[in-house]
Amino acid sequence: MSTSELAKLRAPVAYTDVRARINTVRVVFGLVLAGLAITGLVQDLSPAAGVLVFALYMAADGLWRRGHGESAVPMLLTDTFVFAAIGLLKGDVNLWLSVTFLYILTGALLLLPLTRAAAVISVALLVGITVLLLAPIGDPVISETRSNVFDIVSITLMSLLVGSLLYGAVQALHASTQRHRQALSAERRAVELKDEFVSMVSHEFRTPLTSIAGFSETLRANWPDLEPEEIAEFLIIMRQEAHHLSDLVEDILVIPRIEAGRLRLRPQEFDLAAEIAATSRLVFADTGKEINTYIPTGVIVNADRGRVGQILRNLFDNARKYGGDAVQIDGEASTDTYTITIADNGPGIPEPDWERIFEHFEQGGKGNDRPSEGVGLGLPIARQLARAMGGDVWYAARFPTGASFLFSIRLARIIPDGGEGEVPATEATEPTEV
């Protein structure tokens, strides 16, 4: 679309940005004119009564339009005919029509698209010409002194109308400039995030793919010469790297599903301790960390088991990368919620970053301080998934050092002493979208 076409469709200033201000001035204008009519500044009873009626109508119209209407066309057309009527009643219309037309011209050009502005200005010209032709018939009976007072007050008020339009336009344009700058800044940040994301994802994909390609090529070239134990070890590594790739892809895909409201959840009852134990073994295998888990069997929760596993995996993976050499996992039950705490003895997180770490692609380090792995999605995903299932994930400092991440989940029931071994999961209910 060309610039000329855009000019016909868009106004320089949005009417809604100045609507309250300009209509407040219209209310004041109408009330003051009504006061002039009532106090007898217009001597003849008939013109005074007419001015009073139109002035009160303008005040009422301005009062209503302070909070109503999306276009300036009705307001400007109303003022055109009201001012024309008052001019005819008052007589001596030359100066009055000049200032009226200045107001209509300013308002139309500022608040209306080009085509509508041209239409309103044309109507104002026709009305003005008509008033000029009819004005001599009015034969006003107004004393020169009082007519001058009326002119001074009304022209002053008209100037305030024009001034309020211009002032509102300047403010609106300034606000628009600020919004434009903010939009540009947000766009630049989005481009930076995209570049960082592509770089981080490329790095994350490259590592497991290199391992899979290397071990598969070794197996292909040397299979007859390898011991069975070596083959088994290579296959285990390849499977682990494939799981890592799968988890990364799932993490990348889950956020747009949540934001689009298309994440499918399959809630079911299952034993939380079993899920924690399985995920803990997967994440902390061969890390050398001291892992202490104090979640008893028999804590039955109601949630999507796969998504709970994804939350735990991301929280455990965070503790694996940043959590020192010891991790403690325990929990606490309330009326209908069970809260899991994953605590470590790592360096912890500075208080200003307690919420930032839950933003997409944000990590504890930047630039050269950035960790060697991860794309900054684990904690945001954990929080959004938890909230989608009626729980939450948040951070708490640990004294004297370390970090604690807490994860709340809906509690179905607790079987005392864990019952008879592990409690089997129930059938998942119909999937729901959140």
Note the topology.
Layout (H helix, E strand, L loop, with lengths): L2 H7 L5 H24 L6 H21 L7 H18 L2 H19 L2 H21 L9 H79 L5 H32 L4 E2 L1 E5 H13 L5 E5 L4 E6 H18 L3 E8 L3 E8 L33 H11 L3 E6 L5 E12 L17 E2 L1
Parallel strand pairs: 3-5
Antiparallel strand pairs: 1-9, 2-4, 4-8, 5-6, 6-8, 7-8
Helix pairs in contact: 2-3, 2-7, 3-4, 4-5, 4-6, 5-6, 5-7, 7-8, 8-11, 9-10, 10-11
What does it look like?
- The protein is α+β, with helices and mostly antiparallel strands.
- It has three domains: 182 residues, no CATH class; 64 residues, Signal transduction histidine kinase, dimerisation/phosphotransfer (DHp) domain (Helix Hairpins); 170 residues, Heat Shock Protein 90, CATH 3.30.565.
- The protein is built from eleven helices and nine strands.
- Strands 2, 3, 4, 5, 6, 7 and 8 form a seven-stranded mixed sheet that branches. A two-stranded antiparallel ribbon has the order 1-9.
- β7 and β8 form a beta hairpin.
- About 4% of the residues have low confidence.
